[in-house]
UniProtKB/TrEMBL annotation:
Keyword Metal-binding: yes
Protein name according to UniProt: Dihydroxyacid dehydratase
Source species: Oryzisolibacter propanilivorax
Every Dihydroxy-acid/6-phosphogluconate dehydratase C-terminal domain range: 371-565
GO MF term list: hydro-lyase activity; iron-sulfur cluster binding; metal ion binding
Lineage: Bacteria, Pseudomonadati, Pseudomonadota, Betaproteobacteria, Burkholderiales
Cited SUPFAM superfamilies: IlvD/EDD N-terminal domain-like, LeuD/IlvD-like
């Protein structure tokens, strides 16, 4: 085990990055200081102090981030108390349930914005405020490329929802009750009641969806303060945590503790172990690969299989767990309690942003409810919930969440029913004459990074209505799409290369035989290499979709899912110059 790099120096005021703006005696510095005094500050308020950027993804349109306006003020209070100068930097919000075609299309835009905000202003350290799904990797990716001392404060999950005595989980129950309505088992009025009950407070989805998964991943990486990832958004503890982030980031600047000291290969192993032990979202595989790429850490998809095989699922939180939600997880001890069960699988000498090692931070952590956070001898599932598949249908990989599927499909061979795109699927799926049964393999193409575009969360295709009415609850589904972290079912996702660029998914036809063999990590279409080559030579690439604008940038630079969908010019650690002071 390699010991992580540790910072050695203590910064002086003249060493601060912001000194170039505020500390110099020249014409430009005069302008920087006088226009900062225009805010109503005196020199002593900001000159010679760490300038702390608070990148805030608050917006009226993002219900998961409603409280972040208030939290920014609490972070500022902590920064002032610790002797820093806080500046709030608003950034684009990625509201998962509202933005179209998908927030994933804009993850890299927020990452770029974060990096350039930090680079172009006199920022010495940064607190990142966000949490709604893609927001988290975007903020951390941008901050990683900039490389300053950084703390991520997750927005925190919303409170547990209830309806007619039942507990409702974000996403998971949205899908479930829609199926109930399509099958005629609940009325439109009852469905409207669920609609008004399922999101009870501000905060992120309270299942172990992408938001909760990525918050846990960031805490395990060391980018968030210990215990922060599961604090419910409206809890007073969340307000106190915001103040703590403000205090700590000032000290981190003086210690010169930067992300390069924290985001080591060992930290990414810890993050992947946490992902598996939480039964977390498939989206995290894409994000972790992209985040590692920014940190200069080689983290190929295959690494997840090795970690998944040795890591039990201990978080009994929906959708992989049956009963509980994030509020329960928090009261049961949160992530430190879970990680304390896995010490033998973690690199305990990895550094956290609080300046202590993971091992030090786990001292004294214990579980308060052993049904919510399981002990090693009583796991929810013996191995991790995610498996990377390969084969002639996915030469560069695909992903399946085994923890959330019917085990009867772990090894399955059946005929394909192929849909050319989402609208094609939606127009046929409820027809009574659809030629389909529970052995059919549903295939959706043109839903990948370029085909979607933005790789929408269409991977949990709805089950055909005629089968729903017969009580069928799961089928094998294959696509180059993603699926929500709150989804479930036998859904093979992220097929790479995607069909839009001519991957084998573009070549498969209705009636071809497909094999899914999860123990063998295989996704195979029963076609000869010659037949595939013949079909490929007849394949026509689709016409370009964007003539200008951000979409054109995406088309030109986005990488495939196995590379984390980062833009090719953003990945890696090649330095970008500091702005000249003129
Ligand atoms: Fe924002 Fe789920 S919609 S976290
Ligand atoms: Mg989601």
């Amino acid at each position: 085990m390699t010991t992580p790099r540790k910072p050695v120096r203590r910064m002086a005021a003249e060493d601060l990055r912001s000194h170039r703006w505020f500390g110099a005696q020249d014409l430009r510095a005069f302008g920087h200081r006088s226009r900062t005094m225009q805010i109503g500050l005196v020199r002593e308020d900001f000159v010679g102090k760490p300038v702390i950027g608070i990148v805030n993804t608050w917006s009226d349109i993002n219900p998961c981030h409603t409280h972040l306006r208030e939290r920014a003020e609490q972070v500022k209070r902590g920064v002032w108390q610790a002797g820093g100068y806080p500046v709030e930097l608003p950034a684009i919000t990625l509201a998962e349930t509202i933005q179209k075609p998908t927030t994933m299309m804009y993850r890299n835009l927020l990452a770029m914005e974060t990096e350039e905000l930090l680079r172009s202003y006199p920022i010495d350290g940064v607190v990142l405020l966000g949490g709604c799904d893609k927001t988290t990797p975007a903020l951390v990716m941008g901050a990683t490329s900039m490389g300053l001392p950084t703390i991520f404060l997750p927005a925190g999950p919303m409170l547990t929802a209830r309806w007619r005595g039942q507990t409702l989980g974000s996403g998971s129950d949205q899908w479930k009750f829609w199926d109930e309505r399509r099958a005629g088992r609940i009325t439109a009025e009852e469905h409207a009641e669920v609609e008004g009950s399922i999101a009870r407070s501000h905060g992120t989805c309270m299942t172990m969806g992408t938001a909760s998964t990525m918050a846990a991943v960031c805490e395990a990486l060391g980018v968030s303060l210990p215990g922060s990832c599961s604090i419910p958004a409206p809890d007073s503890g969340h307000m106190r945590m915001a103040g703590e982030c403000g205090k700590r980031i000032v000290e981190m600047v003086w210690e010169d503790l930067r992300l390069e000291h924290i985001l080591t290969p060992q930290a990414f192993d810890n993050a992947a172990t946490t992902l598996m032990a939480n039964g977390g979202s498939t989206n995290a595989l894409i994000h972790l690969v992209a985040m590692a790429g920014r940190a200069g850490v080689d983290f190929p998809l295959e690494r997840f299989n090795a970690i998944s095989a040795r890591t039990p699922v201990l978080a009994n939180v929906r959708p992989v767990g049956q009963a509980y939600l994030m509020e329960d997880f928090h009261y049961a001890g949160g992530l430190p309690a879970l990680l304390a069960q896995l010490k033998d699988l973690l690199h305990l000498d990895s550094l956290n942003c609080n300046g202590r090692t993971l091992g030090e931070n786990l001292e004294g952590a214990r579980i308060w409810n052993e049904d919510v956070i399981r002990t090693r001898d009583n796991p929810v599932k013996a191995d991790g919930g995610l498996v990377v598949l390969k084969g002639n249908l996915a030469p560069d990989g695909a992903v399946i969440k085994t923890g959330a599927m019917d085990p009867r499909y772990l090894q399955h061979t059946g005929p394909a029913l192929v849909f050319d795109d989402y609208n094609h699927m939606a127009s046929l799926i409820d027809r009574d004459d659809l030629d389909v049964d529970e052995n059919t393999v549903l295939v959706l193409r043109n839903a990948g990074p370029l085909g979607g575009p933005g790789m929408p969360e269409w991977g949990m295709m709805p089950l055909p209505r005629k089968l729903l009415l017969r009580g069928v609850k799961d089928m094998v589904r294959i696509s180059d799409a993603r699926m929500s972290g709150t989804s479930y079912g036998t859904c093979v996702l992220h097929v790479a290369p995607e069909s839009w660029v001519g991957g084998p998914l573009a070549l498969i036809r209705t009636g071809d035989t497909v094999t899914l063999d999860v123990p063998a990590q295989l996704l195979h279409v029963h076609l000869s290499d010659e037949e595939l080559a013949e079909r490929r030579s007849a394949w026509q690439p689709p016409p370009p979709r964007f003539a200008r604008g951000y979409g054109k940038l995406v088309v030109q630079h986005i990488q495939q899912a196995d590379k984390g969908c980062d833009f090719d010019f953003l990945t890696g650690t090649a330095p970008t110059a500091e702005p000249e002071i003129h």
